[in-house]
Amino acid sequence: MDNKKYNISDLEALKFHASGRPGKLEIRATKPLTSQRDLSLAYSPGVAAPCLEIKRNPSLAYDYTAKGNLVAIISNGSAVLGLGNLGAIASKPVMEGKAVLFKRFADVDGIDLEVDTQEVGEFINCVKYLGATFGGINLEDIKAPECFIIEQELREIMDIPVFHDDQHGTAIITAAALINALDLTNRDINKTKLVANGAGAASIACIELIKKMGMPHKNITMCDTKGVIYQGRKEGMNQWKSAHAIKTEARTLQDAMVGVDIFLGLSIKDALSPEMVLSMAEKPIIFAMANPDPEIIPEVAKAIRSDVLIATGRSDYPNQVNNVLGFPYIFRGALDVRASTINDEMKIAAAYAIAELAREDVPDEVGAAYAGQTLKYGPEYIIPAPFDPRLITAVAKAVAKAAMDSGVARHPIIDVEAYGNELSARLDPTSASLQAIFEEVRAHPQRIVFAEGEEEKSIRAAVSFSNAGYGIPILLGREEKVRERMVILGLPMIDGLEIHNAKKSTSNRDYTEFLYKRLQRKGALYRDCQRMVNQERNLFAACMVALGDADAMVTGLTRNYYVALEEITRVLDPLPNENVFGLSLLLTRNRTLFVADTAVHELPKPKQLADFAIQAASVATRMGHEPRVALLSFSNFGNPMLERSQLTRDAVLILDEREVSFEYDGEMSVDVALNSELLALYPFCRLSAPANILIMPGLHSSQIATNLLHELGGGTVIGPLLQGLSKPAQIVPMGASVSDIVNMAALTAHEAR
To answer: DSSP assignment of 191-228, as one string?
Structure first.
């Protein structure tokens, strides 16, 4: 992410890394360890059996240990991001972050190792003995030219994949973008001319891969800080640069750019001048990938040449060349076939898989990440979005197949189609969908009222909301008090932040009259409504939303949930033919569950249960899930036949009458709903697989279930999200964190669009 775009402050980043457990990683057991028998199987004496089997056949380590899904992310900190040589320990946050990306995008377990030496031989000696532990090695943030030597020697020594992402990850994504850029401009790679500005590790890797894909050596000119790398040059040369020297009369970047088809920039801000762009061939291709500021800004390039096709390394422009499109899935495919290396064939296969994916129809959830645009293969969309859920299947399959075809796979996949299904099931679509939602909010910013505007968490959340680009925050409170708190907290006054004092608002009269019309036949006098508008911030915030002075509201820090709900529903009505209810998202290790009702109805009636099912199924569908609804009880299909269970059975009958299009059944217990083996005991059940939507029989059970998971850990609880209101309003729990509030505000802003 570009810090500059989203204004992420150092303080925010530090708080994020320090909150809860410091850092971004933890290790969890994958087997139950709840009994003495479990311990005996996991350790002594049971662990002896796999030890002996692995001794007999070392390849069985992939079957009996985590080796096959474990990657070491290793650095010495000699080239950390764009910050320079910070040393090993200072690189640790980056390496932990890389591990998080491995897990998030490809379900690969990464362990960061920071090796505290900058001596090449010592570093190699440390790493070369790790092959027994890991299934792959990802080298990161190591300066050139040492990175070339280190990777080359380790690849020769070790029998597991060794991959320097700064080199090859960048090269693969660049190659993918280039494939489509050539296609869109009707160019033949064998006849195309390219200038590369920058001669570091990434640039050299890009050029090497592009040559292997067919671009002739003589058609590529490489430049560094001293100009063109030509045959015979002595100054500033090394063996890696020399390999790409060509015969040419050009001596400067400007000389080299005349008539060239492609500019590949991995250098510095503003390296590409308007004059150079004008001198390029028809339909020029520009990859300006200096980070955070490219060699030329896309707006400038397009103003100079209307026929230009441009990509950058930034997320705020189309065609972002982002390594996350590659490395998680490349390792996924390599690990799954137990590859001994990541060779050129696998890199090229990955590049073509990424390129081809961009030419396919784009799913709705991906389009949503781009402000709801209908994305289509073309000059503004030459590589997929990073959160495209199809990447894991497309890229990992291609890499695995290339490994098998090139003879480096030690565990070939027999059924490639089944492997593709397995890959798509590894990752739940919810997190990608949430990210898409947040990107859509950035594209359509909203005015959100933070009702408890004098509270520290509200103030910090409002600032973070604004900095993230989600919209304009409105804090309700006394302006002097809010500003005083911001000074104490060390928060700057941000552009666009509004502070409204209910007592001093010029809208009081309008809000009072609006409220009086609603409540005059419900026991409220005019002065009662006036007092409520002046003194009750939730009511004031809800009036702002109802009358269009704000798009949505967030509250809950200082009020019991049901007090806040009562105040909000005095102002905001339900949508026609819908129920207001709470929907919680439970994000666990392997699945996402939607749970309703978790907030409003103590003992819902059958019709309400049926409505919850329909509304929850709609939300799940929008988030990329195929709805499978279980209407829960303590009983299973009439056993035992008790009064409360009958209400759930009646809800099923109502759904039958409505002829809904999604899978549903009940009444059933939660273990049956979620366990495929138990579900199989009821062959008549209409669920084809475990449920992903749970309709609870009462508020007691839903609250107990979601709060239990939240307190014990093992998953993330989002919500409850209020559904069914005519205007968006959300209530956070009283103990909500700043991140919880920001996420809820963003989700509310998305509703308001």
So the answer is: G--EEEE--SHHHHHHHHHHHHTT--GGGEEEEETTEE
Number of domains composing the chain: 4
pLDDT at 373: 57
Contacts with 640 (C-beta within 8 Å, 6 or more apart), sequence order: none
Burial class (CB in 10 A: 0-12, 13-18, 19+), 99: buried
Q: Which among 117, 138, 160 is the end of a domain?
A: 160
Spatial distance between the Cα atoms of 190 and 192, rounded to a whole number of angstroms: 6
The dihedral through the CA atoms of 317, 318, 324, 327 has a sign that is: negative
Rounded Cα gap, residues 749 and 753, in angstroms: 7
DSSP 235-261: TT--HHHHTT-B--S--SHHHHTTT-S
Sign of CA dihedral 470, 476, 480, 484: negative
Q: In terms of DSSP bridges, do strands 446-450 and 471-476 run parallel, antiparallel, or are they unpaired?
A: parallel
Beta strand pairing call for 628-632 and 663-668: parallel
Report d(CA 540, CA 542) in Å as an integer: 5
Q: Which domain holds residue 132?
A: 3-26+38-160
Closest alpha carbon to 382 in 534, 589, 210, 185: 185
**Strand 70-75's sheet: what is its strand order?**
109-114, 70-75, 136-139, 162-164
Residue 750 lies in a domain: no
Q: Is 171 helix (H, G, I), strand (E, B) or coil?
A: helix
pLDDT given at position 4: 40
- Look up residue 144 and give its DSSP letter: T
Q: How far apart are the first and last CA of the chain?
A: 24
Q: Is 292 helix (H, G, I), strand (E, B) or coil?
A: coil
Q: Are residues 140 and 175 in the same domain?
A: no
Main-chain dihedrals φ then ψ at residue 649, nearest 5 degrees: -60, -40
Same domain, 371 and 228: yes
The set of catalytic residues is 43, 98
Chain centroid to CA 44: 40
Same domain, 231 and 248: yes
Q: Note whether residue 741 is domain-resident.
A: no
Handedness of CA 38, 44, 49, 54 (dihedral sign): positive
Of 160, 185, 210, the last residue of a domain is 160
Is 743 among the domain residues? no
Q: Are 172 and 114 in contact (CB under 8 A)?
A: no
Strand order in the sheet with 220-224: 227-228, 220-224, 194-197, 262-265, 285-288, 309-312
Name the phi and psi angles at 482, rounded to 5. -65, -45
Residue 748 lies in a domain: no
Cβ-Cβ contacts under 8 Å for 45 (sequence gap 6 or more): none
Segments of the chain scoring below 50 in pLDDT: 1-6
Query: For position 434, what pLDDT does the model report?
Result: 73
- Rounded CA-CA distance 510/533 in Å is 10
Distances (CA, A) of 159 to 131, 134, 170, 442, 713: 7, 11, 23, 45, 38
